[in-house]
Amino acid sequence: MTFDRYHAQTTNIKLTRKEREMWNITSKALLHLGVILVVDVFFHYLYILTIPSDMKLVGKLSDWCLAGLAYSNLVYDWIKAAVMFGVINTVATLDHLDPPQPPKCITMLYVFAETHFDRGINDWLCKYVYDYIGGDHDRIFKEFLATFCTFFITTLWLGPCQLVYLWSFFNCFGLNFELWVAKLFALPPLSTIERFMGEAMSRRIRGVFNAANFWAIVLYNVLSLNSLEFAKLVARRLIFTGFPLSTLSVLAVTYCGVQLVKERERQIALLEEPEPEKPAEAKEKSE
Predict the structure, then answer these.
(1) What is the spatial distance between Cα 146 and Cα 136, in angstroms, rounded to a whole number?
(2) First to last CA, the chain
(3) 75 inside domain
(4) What domain count does the chain have?
(5) In a domain, 117, yes or no
(6) How many helices (H) does the chain have, and how many strands (E)?
(7) Tell me, what DSSP letter sits at residue 54?
(8) Key word rRNA-binding present in the record (predicted)?
(9) 34, 112, 225, 274 — which has fewest CB within 10 A?
(10) Residue span of the structural domain in which 130 resides
(11) CA proximity to 67, closest of 215, 277, 268, 275
């Protein structure tokens, strides 16, 4: 948590509990305890962390098994971060603090801008490095410098080594590529063509790019979780040797998942959107 947020919360003298807050804290604590027990049992039967280290065994797996194994490793890392930060957050709420929330579920990540497993460090980097140097993020040089400095500090924090260098390079590239492609499609004539397509067709085309982006996120982050050899094998099998059947089928399933996630996010945004105020005449009639 950044110091300004922490200071504002600790100096607040009006400490009150929201409705059903203690019930929510208790339910979260029980949920985290249940997840810890389930993961502990799974570790005795599912060897998702040790299988990638045996390249002879991994080489015999099918394309779908490799894709599932790579995805499962990211899910494990997300669960570890979600439980670790979730337990701390649950305890912190007992002291009337509002700490950063646990990381966003890996299944719902299809953009590099939201790919972080620690919201606190992400907020700190954005405030003091990325947004401070990048400004409005409209200039190419300043944006490149901002992302370079951000990932340089992240590399030092993770511990400089070959895998961390590769992880930082690919994620820095992915973030910049995603940003400038989005800005390019916001300019005419591409923006004009998208308007003529209609909302449904535009959503489908964006879903295809998001599905490919999702697997880029998986492959780039498998580097830091497993090994370079495992990441290269998964990429080679999914992109080259598995083309077209494995590649297109995996992308098709991912595309459907991305569309479901985007629809859920759209519905949540509609629910959170404030209702427009009624005119005075309409209020009088309703009364």
Answers:
(1) 11
(2) 46
(3) yes
(4) 1
(5) yes
(6) 13, 0
(7) -
(8) no
(9) 274
(10) 20-272
(11) 215
